[in-house]
Amino acid sequence: MTLKPPPLTLAILVTALGVPLAFALGLLSGSSGWGWPAHDIFWLIRLPRVLAAFGTGAALALAGALIQLVTRNPLGDPHILGVTSGASVGALLLMLLASGMVLAPELGAVAGALAAMTLVFALSWRSMGRGLSPSAQPGTVVVLLVGVMIGAACSAAVSFMLTVANDTQLRNIVFWLLGDLNGASLWWPVWLACIVAFMLSWPRSQELDWIARGDAWAWTLGVPVARRRRMAIFAACLATGTAVATAGSIGFVGLVAPHIVRLTGLRHARMLLPFSALFGGVFLVLADTAARTLVAPTQLPVGVISACVGVPLFLMLLLRRKG
User: Fold this and answer.
1) Model confidence at 6: pLDDT above 90
2) Cβ atoms within 10 Å of 16's Cβ, excluding its own
3) What is the DSSP letter of 80?
4) Per residue in 17-31, pLDDT tens?
5) Domains delineated in the chain
6) Is the pLDDT of residue 152 over 60?
7) DSSP readout, 233-280?
């Protein structure tokens, strides 16, 4: 007889091994080769980059888990639902119009993410309201399709901004849109936003579980559904916006990390939210390490690596869903 470790024990073991390993690989790897870097390179380049990668991955994964809970959609992800694209539009707009303002990309990205998510819910709220029984989820496909359309509209807005940008702005914007951690030295805003988003959502994790089972179920238990959903959306957009402002448009982290956590057996929000953040941070640090070393000395955008993992997983989950 094969004995399986309890889900929480398994998740703790994976995290305890994964976090130090990811940090070690991230600090020891570089486009010039492997090894312990010089003092200045360590403190000014590699450590801030690893911290920015971990914070960005944690923020995107936490946002993905929250979106999956409040939309009752296992395919929910900031990138797929257009939230990342909305954050990109807001960040680029302030980068072009108010480049000298302090934290301009961060503020613009959060505003853009909130605007995109508000549009998604405003256009799909009727369909979401049909999923009132604990087992029915007929509105989730509509949410997914609306999110894809919002993302397409935001991509058109980004294309317009690329057209009117000058040569210097154009080069910076293109690399930023690909999802790039090269030069990401300002790591603390995304860590702060991730902590705030977690503190907003985790104390209400049981209520988020009830909302995930259906609005009617949550109402009968006395949950203020609209208020909790707005709280979760704001937390997800805050985390997504700062992540996009830090590292650009990186997709599928919010899809991959929560599903990895669910594979360990942890499905309730109280455990899903913190371990999704930890697994997301580890995933993006490892993806950034691969981006720096696979074709060294050339550095790949980290968004390419995350898409290579996320796209097959998304297709697998989509094809496995029952009609």
Assistant:
1) no
2) 11
3) T
4) 999 999 999 999 877
5) 53-318 (1.10.3470.10)
6) yes
7) HHHHHHHHHHHHHHH----SHHHHHHHHHHHTT--SHHHHHHHHHHHH
